[in-house]
Amino acid sequence: MTFADILADVEDRRRTLVVYSSVDRPEILDRFTFRNVTVERRSLPGETAQGFAVVRNDEFVGSIGLEELQLLLEPPFAPPWDETVIGEAYCALYELLDDILFTSLDRRQLLGASREIENRAWHVGSGTLRAGFQRFSALETQLPVYTRLARETDLEIHVYSKDEWKPASSPGFAYYGDSHEDIGRFWFLSFDGGGDDRQMGALLAEERTPDEFVGFWTYDPELVAELSRTVRDLSG
Predict the structure, then answer these.
(1) Kind plus residue range of the DSSP H or E element containing 156
(2) CA–CA gap between residue 10 and residue 22 (Å, rounded)
(3) Residue 169's pLDDT is what?
(4) Are 219 and 97 in contact (CB under 8 A)?
(5) Taking the chain (236 residues) in consecutive chunks of 10 residues, what is each chunk's mean pLDDT?
(6) Which of 107, 151, 234, 204 is nearest to 143 (CA)?
(7) What integer pLDDT is reported at residue 1 of this predicted model?
(8) 189 - beta bridge partners?
(9) Stated pTM of the model
(10) Please, what's the largest Cα pairwise distance for the chain?
(11) b or e along 141-157 (b: 16 or more beta carbons within 10 Å of the residue's beta carbon)?
């Protein structure tokens, strides 16, 4: 499979988002555009109800308050080990919206989703974390995170980009430069769960226009494993 194949596979995973609100909330909802989600709206009585959204596939998946959705729009900047920010509520939000193909993610939103997956890797402390960067400047800003993960856990960190770069030797840290052209077109991250399928997670996004991405995150073990296999195949 290719990265494009994986995006197409996720697009086939249809979801329905039912929004319950007493008033329109364009400042929140109009900033989300989806490829594989049908959005329905339902009215609530009164003008003070906060409103909430229900996610369904063939059955009920979960619900979330509309205010909480704002965390996806402007996620906090925090390292994966900062439990004051990346707590249970933060993780539950991303789990509720997994396998949804967003069509207008920006870098900050993708970084927020990445931090949730990295937080899983930090807590498990073993397994393999693979991260791909479109350009070296993006990798450079994240190096402190990945070098600390490699230094303070038993994780194997594999980092990919299109640039030739020779990092300082570090146990648990491997860099792959000048990889397949798709490595430079996509932002990706995958964690194999360290032997625990419940902790697996991955993210894949393609920059279609400057600083605007089509992408998704997932906790489906089969899809995470497929993405990891694709990364290995593309990088040789």
Answers:
(1) strand 154-160
(2) 32
(3) 65
(4) no
(5) 91 89 74 82 76 88 84 83 82 88 88 93 96 82 89 92 72 79 86 95 92 92 95 80
(6) 151
(7) 83
(8) 131, 203
(9) 0.88
(10) 62
(11) eeeebbbebbeebebbb
Q: How far is CA 75 from CA 53, 115, 152, 178, 212, in A?
A: 19, 10, 25, 31, 16
Paired tokens of 107: 């870098």
The answer to whether 199 and 221 have CB atoms below 8 angstroms apart is: no
65: β partners: 52
What value does the CA radius of gyration of the chain take, rounded to a whole number of Å?
18
Q: Which two tokens stand for residue 23?
A: 């008033």
Tell me how far CA of residue 135 lies from CA of 7, 71, 175, 219, in angstroms. Answer: 21, 26, 13, 26
Using the structure block, give the residue that is written with the tokens 């290995």.
Answer: 232
pLDDT of residue 168: 67
Angstrom CA distances, 113 to 67, 105, 171, 215, 216, stand at: 18, 10, 26, 11, 9
- Residue for token pair 């909802």: 29
CA distances from 168 to 95, 140, 171, 172 (A): 35, 13, 10, 12
CA-based torsion, 202, 54, 49, 23: positive or negative? positive
Q: What are the backbone angles phi and psi of residue 172, rounded to the nearest 5°?
A: 80, 5
CA distance 102 to 188: 15
Closest CA to 173 of 158, 190, 152: 158
- pLDDT value at position 234? 79
